[in-house]
Design a protein that fits this description.
Chain lengths: 671, 204
Amino acid sequence: MTEDHSELSLCPNCGKENLPMATRCVHCGSAMESLFTISGQTQLPDEESEDSLPDIIEEIRNDPALQVPTEPEPNPEAQPVGQGDEPTLPEDQMPDWLAKVRERAQGEEDAIGGLVSGTIAMDAARSEEGTAGVEGEFNAWINRIREQSQQETSARARQLPSENEDSDQTPEWLQRIRALRPRPEDEITHEIKTTPTYLDDLPREWTDEALQELRRQALEEEREQGTEPLPDAGLTAKNEELPTEPGLEEPNVAALEEPLLGETEFHNIPEDEEEFLEPVPAVDLSLQPDVEAEKSAEEAVEHELVAEEVEKPNEVVEQEILQQESIQANEPIVAEPPVEPEVTETPKQLPLLEEESELHPDEPEQESEEEEQPEDSAAVPPDLLLLRDQQDRANLLASLIEQEGRVTAGKQVIRKPSGRAGRLVVALLLLIGLIVSILIGPAAIPTDTPKSLPALALSDQIQTLVENDKVLVVLDYQAATSRELESLTAPLLAKLVTQGAQLSFLTTQPSGLFLAQSLLEQAGLPETTPVDFLPGSYLNLIGWAVNPTISATGDELVKVKNLYPFKLVLLVSDSSDNIRGWLEQIAPWIESLRFAAVTTQMEAPVIAPYFDSGQLVGYSAGVADGNLGAQTSFNYRAYRVGLLLMLVMLLLGMISKGEADAIRKEEERSE
Amino acid sequence: MKRLLPLIVGILSGLVVLAAMFFIPLGGGILGVVLNWVIVVAGVALLVAIASLVLTHLRFVANGKKGFLLSLVLVISFLVTLVFGLLSGVDNPVFLKWVGAVIRPIETALLGLVALVMMSAAMKIFRERGWSALTVSFGVSAVIFLVLGLGFLQNLNSPVLNQVITFLEGLPMIGARGLLIGIGIGLLMMAFRVLFGMEGSGND
């Protein structure tokens, strides 16, 4: 029947789209007629519709059937309904059904019905009467309001001159203040830029601009009311506890409304809060003569306001005001120190603060937040409440900003002690002990020190030698072991010499030539003692040992190579391999030849089996076997100290390993 | 042929020496001659080694390689000793004392360092290798023989203790016997490998 809802209807006035059900355009406010369009009906032009509507109403009004029967006035222009509905079309163009309807209407007097026609006539008469009554009442109500307003204005104007004659004895200034205080219907809101509010919704400090604006508003109101100008006095705050700056004007009601706006429009934008930080010019009380009077008036106003708030009777309040006035008249007025915000900045400090804010832009926000921290959280708007997490993060940010640029110690890497220092100290201590034991001087081995069996066997073999027995001494060692071997060999050589044995020296090492000199010197032998160099060691003697006939061919041959005349071959060697070669390659070919050895303690275990098998008649190895006599070049003390240090180091290694294992197990257990 | 000739030479030398050992005294002369060849060849090899050493360090000095100063010291020492020995002779007591005065403290110091290194190794072996049969046996045996080496227990003159000490001192001989037997078996196997041409030394 109506248009499809999915299609938007266009406003006939502005042409913009509207909802299909809209009766008025949401853009221009004009009426929307599309709701009442009938499907299939062509939209007539507005002029035609406007012209046709009064005609219909006029026809209805002129319909005699709808006329009130009490009105006998005949309307000469009145026509029957059928006449009124006379078509403008000629009869030849009139449809048949319409012609029939008109004929029937003419034939019948009341086509609608008598009951309906009466009801309609009554409704029409009532509507005309009601319309006239409502309009009259509305106009009367408006007139009454205007008259009442004029009366109140005039009464207020008349009230001021007669204030001294007030029976309630209200002071003049109080009356003026009351008159100045606008009522809610008379409130004129002026947009005065005031300082932001504090916890109690009232500004603590007023700027000069705000005060001047306040004075200007008061004067304007007075001019409008046609009264004489009032002295500067203002309302302060609702609460009595609020302090006032001495010499400062009180804000008007508009200013008092600002805190309310401040509550609703509160935000944490620091830029706005910087207004708090504007320096308030210092007011010199001595330069303002009416400061005390104003202060007393302010205090009285405050009491008055408080009294009104608690709805005390006016008489009681005025009595209290009078009492306070009498008290203030007797007592010197002391300027009440203004209550400063929690964090106050003096004008001198403000530039510093601005500099800090430039350096640390986040700090003012935090400081303002700190300023706004309520003493009583219940009186603080919810926007001011900070979560604990937010507070912690703010504190953390503040601390980070404070530490910015400072030289701080870097993260110290915890290094586990490597133990190098400790080991170095231990090694140094041990070395120092060893060096000291060496520096003390030589210490011979005690004579009562028990000898080893090979050493005893060697000693016995030497004892068996008689005078002119030939002994071949083979020097086969390096300079590194010369001290140890020479200390063992020299006593043996000395003993052999004392027994009258003939010594022949043979060396298989190139270094043996100069080492033999040292040995001979220690043994007390002359340096001219011949020492033959035998290249190839015992391999060079295998042929001579295998074929003794070679050596028998002539005495001009090297006499050392003929091994048969020797009773004993003393092998002074630091190599068990060389000793083993002598014993395995030479000894089997010469059964009459006995072999003995002087070697290092390190090599002694290897040649021990040869002693056990009888291939060696005896051997002396190590320092412990050197107790054959006084040995000036040997330091038995240093030798013992060295062994002791070795033992200590070995035990330390075991202990440290055990400790490391214990620590590791403890850590594993703790984990 | 390049590989076969050394192999044939090695096999023949071994067989000749072995035969000479079995046919003594007839083979004694042959054995002496062959061993002299070995000594001469070893001496020549030593000369070649010395020449190679000197040339290498001369090359280091010429190229200015890192540590060439040490090479320079080596070359200078070698040349001075060679010249001094050729001029004065190897039997000159002054020459021998001079050489001995240099070599003896150096080698003694090196041996002392070896002792310190071994001492440090004995301390570290437990930390590096942990507790194992090898390390434990090494530590225990080292401690025992170090204590015995101090001679304190021997001075007690206790018969029982002396028997224990004798037993303990005989333990190394057991090991040495096994070592010597192993060395003998190894030499025998090596000889067979050379004789049968199984040793790869001929490749060189």
